[in-house]
């Protein structure tokens, strides 16, 4: 690792000099462009008093080698342990002498090691304009130098990634007992230029020399061929290309292209956003129309369904494929009109046992259902499809779980998703489901057995069985399922959900009943007349 500093001879020579002057052997102060520099110093209890003094002298020596000023390098210092304390912000001092006094007065916190908290503070507070940082539009480089001697007691990877995404260049300096994995998780790339590990606090000035050398480096953009298409910005690690507003940097690090507006704005498209020059438009999947708001797509609205999804969570599915299954389920939800009076959705996961993830009556919007689907945790273990079918028949479509009463005539649909052969018998409960009036669909992937899929599914099998050889390609099944499940096109087209107790329904029922009775009376009168005629004919014959 280039960042692992091992210069024994130089180190011995340096140790013969006072700490304050060791960092000035390279020559006069750097005259770099503007820079916002924040030191993040670990002052936890693991840093012994004499070691902290070494860090203090290191900071003082480094300050005297910088070109400090309001229009040059601004410096801020924070220290942390179980809490974070600002020693002085970027805008506080413009002279090294004032900074030195504040550093010499610094008292260690001597508690835990919350490095993630310190990075969060640096990102949100220390590098804010209110604390003295230059506004982002001025494109002044922002550099954080983290000096630590141990393993963080909180998470650092995510918050460090956020800081880097905001344009903060992070150097991670580990001393003695520091955890190399944590240093690499914090630092900017390339890691060999941003991660430094020194064997002891006595040798920390070696990092200072190399760091100062980078600060004093020539303007990389003025010298050498950077090949940037739009603009070159010199950073401590070398030249970096930037693109003009409305353009994005390509992976080659040099070229620029017009920004994909769909990635840069909150477009709100329900299905797909397509950039068109300086604007964009929303698209809907085949078979669905864009609504007047220009963002949402039409859904199934002509009928109502109680839909229960049985999802195979056995170990053969594997975690990454289970995530694809959840995404597939949410794509099904996308074309349903989920509401208490529209389509209700329930989800059951099965492996060696069965678990109701959420029943039919729990969620009233598609957004709630999709969020619940994403939160489902993978079960693993075996494949008891028969047990899952029994659970669905006995419990999932009960009124207690949110299914609507049979008197309302709401279609009940079961969709079984599996990737292999069941380890128990499915025939009894597959037949029972259809006897109970549940319309069954079977979706198989990979090693799913066609005979079992056909046994689970309703007739005709061509309309109720779907298969995909691979999890990554199963999205092509969506349109077939939409045509079958979507009420306006499939099983419940034209179904009108009406309560038999509503006044209009009662009047309609009464009218139909009276009409039927009148017809029956007329038929009886005709039958009586014929019987009388037959009796007269028999009497005459006698």
From TrEMBL:
Write the signal peptide boundaries. 1-21
**The keyword Oxidoreductase appears for this protein:** no
Q: Which SUPFAM superfamilies match?
A: Chicken cartilage matrix protein, EGF/Laminin, vWA-like
Keyword Cytoplasm assigned to the entry: answer is: no
* Keywords for the protein's UniProt record, in alphabetical order: EGF-like domain, Glycoprotein, Repeat, Secreted, Signal
Q: Cite the VWFA domain residue spans from the record.
A: 36-215, 306-481
Chief location category = secreted
Checking Pfam families in the record gives:
Matrilin_ccoil, VWA
An example Gene Ontology CC term for this record: extracellular region
The record's InterPro entries line, in alphabetical order, gives: ECM_Assembly_Org, EGF, Matrilin_CC_sf, Matrilin_CC_trimer, VWF_A, vWFA_dom_sf
User: Which Gene3D superfamilies does the record match to this protein?
Assistant: 1.20.5.30, Laminin (2.10.25.10), von Willebrand factor, type A domain (3.40.50.410)
Localization annotation: Secreted
The identity of this protein, by name, is: Matrilin 4
| The organism of origin for this protein | Prolemur simus (Greater bamboo lemur)
